[in-house]
Every structure is written in C-alpha cells, then in structure tokens.
Design a protein that fits this description.
The structure holds 2 protein chains of 2 kinds. Chain A is mostly beta strands. Chain A has no helices and 9 strands. In chain A, the strands form 2 sheets. Chain A has a 5-stranded mixed sheet, with no helix packed on it. Chain A has a 4-stranded antiparallel sheet with strand order 2-7-6-5, with no helix packed on it. The radius of gyration of chain A is 14 Å and the shape is globular. Chain B is mainly beta. In chain B, 0% of the residues lie in helices and 56% in strands. In chain B, the strands form 2 sheets. In chain B, strands 2, 4, 5, 6, 9, 10 and 11 form a 7-stranded mixed sheet that branches. In chain B, a hairpin with a 6-residue loop joins strand 4 and strand 5.
C-alpha cells in the first residue's frame, strides 16, 4: 500500500494561512487523497478529499501536485480552533481496501495567538 | 444532522465483565465502522460493516464482538478484556464504503479495563 509522509509538527500564527504538506511518492493513479483532523479530546473530523484536481470547500483547500506525488492542505486563515492533528490518508482501489481508512502519524498543528 | 452518537462516554470494567458500546447515526448511512485509539496514537480500524454485514475484520481478538442490528445502530460487545485494551473506541459512519465517501466520527467511548 502507498504510504504518506507528513512533518510531525508545525506552528502557525492566528489569522495567517497554513500550508500542511504531505508526500505520497508511491501513490497509484486511482488512490484518493483524504484529509482528516482530530481536535483534542474529539473524534476525527473529515476535512477534504480529492483525486487529481485541486479542491475547495468551506473548511480548506487541497492542492494536488501535477504528478500526484505530493499534496498540500491549505487553511486560509488559521484560528485557535484549527489546532489539531492533521492526517493525510490515501484510499486505494480494491475490494480488500473497501471502507478502510488507515491513519498515519499525522501533523500536529499549533496555532499561536 | 451529521451526528454520530456514542454511549457511554466513559466505561470502567473489570477483566471478567461483559459490557457493550453503542453507536447510532440517523444520516441514512449504510457503512459503519469501529476504530480503537490508544493515547497519542492514530486511530486503528477494527471492523467495517456495509449494509449491515461485516465486510472487514482487521484480525481483532474474539473478545471484541461487533453487531449491527439495523442500519442506524452499531454495537461492540466486550468480554474478558485485558488492561491493554484500555483505549478510546471510536465509531464512524459513511454513506457507503466506497473510498470517495467521507466518514463521520463520534466522540468516542473512553474504556478503562482494570
């Protein structure tokens, strides 16, 4: 299975944009890229997902490199509430993978006031 | 309503007890999941139910027994647990089990085995 690599931690200032990187150099052409986050003492929360094109939603933007070997989650204006562990997850094709969401170690984002 | 509810919030049980965790969603989702999360670790998938049938068991010990009585409800029956089974147990649901669907998570049940 393709693996993702994320920095262990990042810091950001409140009200500034945050770019969270994810490397997935062994991604296959049919793997979806999903991002979830987990705030302290809460269950994970879906953020965004994409396949090939960049995606935007009310929470964030997902920029996918042209070769799909990396992606970046963009929070446009960080707030204190965005302090969380952010997980970049690949979801591969295949009946044995159906339903599976395999979490890596993620990036712990700290937001400073 | 995008809520997944889990009860109880906290549970303390002895190694000889039998208890159950409950998870409920009313979003019309047809896939439901159990995850286990140890402190400072990422969640680990345990079971996947699709259309009320168990589709994935990630080699979970038989002392954990899942049940899906209907499309809105998911239970996890616990029996003869070990102290190392103490963890946060998370339930999730999604519209289907295909990889394009996002999963919605509940707040979890924090389980302590004494």
């Amino acid at each position: 299975d393709a693996k993702t690599t994320q920095p262990n931690s990042m810091e950001s200032n409140e009200e500034e944009p945050v770019h969270l990187p994810c490397n997935h150099s062994t991604i296959s052409g049919t793997d979806y890229i999903h991002w979830y986050r987990q705030l302290p003492s809460q269950g994970p929360e879906y953020v965004i997902h994409g396949l090939t094109s960049n995606v935007n939603n009310r929470m964030a933007s997902l920029a996918i490199a042209e070769d799909r070997k990396s992606s970046t989650l963009i929070l446009h204006r960080a707030t204190l509430r965005d302090a969380a562990v952010y997980y970049c997850i690949l979801r591969p094709y295949g009946s044995s993978n159906t339903g599976k969401l395999i979490f890596g170690q993620g990036t712990t984002l700290q937001v400073k006031p | 309503d995008t809520e997944v509810t889990q009860t109880p919030k906290h549970l303390v049980m002895g190694m000889t007890n039998k208890k159950s965790l409950k998870c409920e969603q009313h979003m019309g989702h047809r896939a439901m999941y159990w995850y286990k999360q140890k402190a400072k670790k990422p969640p680990e998938l345990m079971f996947v139910y699709s259309y009320e049938k168990l589709s994935i068991n990630e080699s979970v010990p038989s002392r954990f027994s899942p049940e899906c009585p209907n499309s809105s409800l998911l239970n996890l029956h616990l029996h003869a647990l070990q102290p190392e089974d103490s963890a946060l147990y998370l339930c999730a649901s999604s519209q289907g089990d295909a990889r394009a669907y996002e999963q919605y998570f509940g707040p979890g049940t924090r389980l302590t085995v004494t």
